[in-house]
Write a structure and sequence with these properties.
Shape: globular
Number of helices: 6
CATH class: Alpha Beta
Structural class: alpha+beta
Number of strands: 18
Helix content: 10-25%
Order of helices and strands: EEEEEEEEEHHHEHEHEEEEHEEE
Strand content: 25-35%
CATH architecture: Roll
CATH topology: C8orf32 fold
Length: about 325
């Protein structure tokens, strides 16, 4: 369904997805495109950069009205990644009273916080200070297979012919990934509010506009069509403008899941993983099952200690 800030009553099964101008009070007018950094492929090395060791502080504040009793699920906490030290608070209240949430562990140690909510005003507040260098998880053969398949928002099966004509079948997978990311970066205009939460990669390809989830879906769908496993990652992204939960893609290259972001809105080295999945249907920051809710307020922040790192789009980066 189309989602508009503060004016929609959400029924059973709503997905609040990432980077969505749909939930932002920003104008839907075309915004200035982020600077396009042209990579010089001859300078690329095989040594992937990893997430910054510097301190990062992130937070999320969500307020919603529960109109009919429902089951709520939040994906707003930093994933439990080896190598990171996370000092955090996670608080949920209903009408000001604390609520204890169950924690479920998802792919790549993403965390889902769940509880049953009666009618009333719900607030979710998350704060975290993060230090250390993330250590990538071991490769999982099942996931490698899973992330080659078509999914709800990455309709790979509709793009096989298009991808083959556009990109051919180069032997160098790293170069192929860079070409796909550069193609999407050049093709799309970042326009908050330009897409619906139900839009998939094909819709984005035809419209030529979108927000971060749309960029990521198109990159993922094209890469899978070219036999490159790819998945979506929800992240906190210091430096992102407009600030929001952010969505990027990861592509499997030379045995490593490399982070790629065609929006170029924030340096990948500073990003922190929240959740991982086939597409945004797996990584929504808020889900409800049954009942009815409305999202009244959302505020996200992500900062680094000191200067933001400089991100060369041609340089491989691994989030961990």
């Amino acid at each position: 369904m189309s989602v508009f800030w503060g004016r929609v009553r959400y029924l059973n099964g709503v997905h609040m997805t990432l980077g969505s101008g749909a939930f932002s009070p920003l104008s839907s007018a075309v915004t200035e495109r982020s600077p396009r950094i042209r990579p010089t492929l001859t300078t690329v090395t095989d040594v992937a950069q990893t997430a910054s060791e510097g301190s990062r502080k992130v937070s999320a504040d969500l307020r919603l009205s529960v109109l009919e009793p429902t089951a709520l699920e939040f994906q707003i906490a930093v994933a439990s990644v080896r190598g990171l030290t996370v000092d955090e608070t996670v608080e949920f209240t209903v009408d000001g009273e604390p609520v204890r949430a169950r924690e479920l562990i998802g792919p790549n140690n993403g965390r889902i916080h769940c509880f049953d909510a009666p009618r009333g005003s719900v607030r979710a507040a998350y704060r975290a200070s993060v230090t250390g260098t993330a250590i990538p998880s071991p490769l999982n053969e099942f996931e490698t297979s899973l992330y080659l398949r078509p999914s709800r928002y990455a309709e790979t099966d509709k793009l096989f012919g298009f991808a083959a004509r556009e990109f051919g079948t180069p032997d160098n997978r790293g170069e192929l990934v860079r070409r796909v990311v550069e193609y999407v970066a050049d093709l799309l205009d970042y326009v908050p509010g330009s897409s619906d939460p139900i839009d998939g990669a094909v819709d984005t390809l035809l419209s030529g506009t979108g927000v971060c989830r749309d960029y990521a879906h198109l990159v993922i769908a094209l890469l899978r069509a070219l036999n490159v496993p790819a998945r979506l990652v929800a992240v906190y992204a210091p430096g992102c403008d407009p600030m929001d939960f952010h969505a990027i893609a990861e592509a499997l290259v030379d045995g490593r899941w490399q982070a790629v972001d065609a929006t170029r809105l924030a340096p990948r080295q500073a990003m922190l993983r929240i959740s991982t999945g086939r597409d945004s249907s797996d990584t929504a920051f808020l889900d409800n099952h049954g009942g009815a809710i409305s999202l009244d307020h959302i505020e996200v922040s992500a900062i680094v200690e000191g200067d933001l790192p400089v991100d060369d789009p041609a340089q491989p980066v691994v989030l961990g």
